[in-house]
Design brief:
- This protein has eight helices and three strands, in the order H-H-H-E-E-H-H-H-E-H-H.
- By secondary structure, it is mostly helical.
- The protein folds into two domains: about 90 residues, no CATH class; about 150 residues, no CATH class.
- Strands 1-2-3 form a three-stranded parallel β-sheet, covered by helices on one side.
- The longest helix is centred in the middle third of the chain and has 14 residues.
- The model has no long low-confidence stretch (mean pLDDT about 95).
Length: about 240
């Protein structure tokens, strides 16, 4: 565990469970690296996919398209996992608030999203977007990014926190991804956190909307759609 060894990818020390062979590994990389497994044959992918196949079969039996399944894949994508998702035409999660705006290759950047991905501003394990945008440096960075990404008729409005958050949502709608997920705290403009990973607190997972939630000012979905539709298809990169 301390070396990041993966159960099915370690024929040298966990041969009983190994699916990948020694000749398919890249020993120049750490054991936990995405590219540790260089290649797999279809029979091996069958073995990696054995449990996932049960989920896909269940979806089909109940008349659902397996592509409706949402897989919480975050920063890493080991090759065996990528092979299984590719087999079923499934994507990954891209949580844009985590994006490194200085790195165009970052996995959370929407320029790197595929049609089958699920894109979102945040989720149950992240800070609400309106809390994050209280940071002036973060606001400025996102304003510059969105001014370049969206065809905004009034880019000066990006100084307004609610317009900025809505423009961030518009970038999701303008991306290649077919699935957009909006966590309720972001939708309604809450700033309290639902969960902080690795921290035990009495209020974890207890956040709820207040009875007078209609007074809250959150994301403006109609405006986000309007802003997204202003982006020319050729610019959706």
């Amino acid at each position: 565990m301390q070396a990041g060894t993966r159960l099915f990818d370690s024929p040298d020390c966990l041969s009983r469970y190994a699916i990948a062979r020694l000749d398919q590994l890249d020993p120049s990389l750490p054991r936990h690296a995405d590219g540790w497994v260089r290649e797999l044959d279809e029979t091996q992918v069958d073995r990696y996919a054995a449990l996932f196949e049960i989920l896909v079969d269940s979806a089909r039996r109940h008349g659902r398209d397996p592509r409706d399944l949402s897989c919480e894949v975050l920063s890493t994508m080991p090759r065996p996992l990528a092979c299984v998702l590719q087999r079923y035409g499934l994507g990954r999660w891209r949580v844009t608030q985590k994006a490194d705006l200085a790195d165009p290759r970052d996995v959370y950047r929407l320029e790197n999203a595929a049609r089958e991905d699920w894109v979102m501003l945040g989720n149950h394990d992240t800070a609400p977007i309106f809390a994050l945008l209280r940071d002036p440096a973060r606001r400025d960075a996102w304003a510059r990014h969105l001014a370049a990404r969206l065809a905004l008729r009034r880019p000066e409005r990006l100084v307004e926190p609610h317009f900025l958050a809505t423009a961030m949502l518009a970038e999701l709608f303008a991306s290649r991804a077919e699935n957009v997920m909006i966590f309720f705290a972001d939708l309604f403009g809450l700033e309290e956190r639902f969960n902080t990973p690795g921290v035990t607190r009495d209020d974890t997972w207890t956040l709820r909307l207040p009875p007078d939630f209609e007074r809250l000012r959150g994301l403006d979905i109609p405006l986000a759609i309007e802003l997204a539709l202003q982006v020319d298809g050729a610019e959706r990169r």
